[in-house]
Amino acid sequence: MLVDTNVIIESHNRNCWLALCSSFCVQTVEKCIEETQNGHFSRDPLKRIDEPTLRSSLDKIHTVTELQRAEVLLNGGSGLDDGERDLWAHALTCTDVWILCGPDTASMRFGYAVEKRDSLVSLESLLKKIGHTPSGALPDHYKQRWLDDTMSKLAIGIL
């Protein structure tokens, strides 16, 4: 399972990161790790993510090349932020089965454009699959309904 910065942060905020990591093979890219540390010192101390602990909780952290990034841009990924771009750059090179959890419209649009719609998954559906209830309600864009609505809008061309 590939996760972006937003999923890492929200999972930590909702106390479900360890449940995800113990149930799935969770992977990301270096840029997403870096992004989790942006604003680290201005965050509420309870919401800070310890980088060494984060790194050790992941099954793998991938490094992305400039050539991989160029592939994303050639496929219409100019609207992605740096972490999303690198996560997709890695995903497009995967030859095994993978799913990507990245609740952002630009990321969903890119996944739809490169015909990886079936590889996109919501945080809510992952947590339901493992029977874990997050502490507090998930924001809408982490829910299955948001993912389904976004895919439907992309399919009919209104997004």
Overview of the structural elements:
With 159 residues, the chain is mostly helical. The chain is built from 9 helices and 4 strands. The longest helix has 13 residues, at 144-156. The chain is globular, with a radius of gyration of 15 Å. The protein has a two-stranded parallel ribbon. Helix 1 crosses helix 3 (30-37). The chain has helices spanning 5-13, 17-23, 30-37, 51-57, 66-74, 82-91, 105-113, 123-130, 144-156; strands spanning 2-3, 27-29, 60-62, 100-101.
Which labels suit this protein?
mainly alpha; 9 helices; two-stranded parallel ribbon; 159 residues; globular
What class, by secondary structure content?
Answer: mainly alpha
Low-confidence stretches: none
Radius of gyration: 15 Å
The percentage helix is 40-55%
> Number of helix segments?
9
Strand order of the largest sheet: 1-4
Give the H and E element order: EHHEHHEHHEHHH
Summarize model confidence as the mean pLDDT.
94
Strand share of the residues? Answer: 5-15%
Distance between the termini: 26 Å
Main sheet specs = 2 strands, parallel
The rough form would be described as globular
How many strand segments? 4
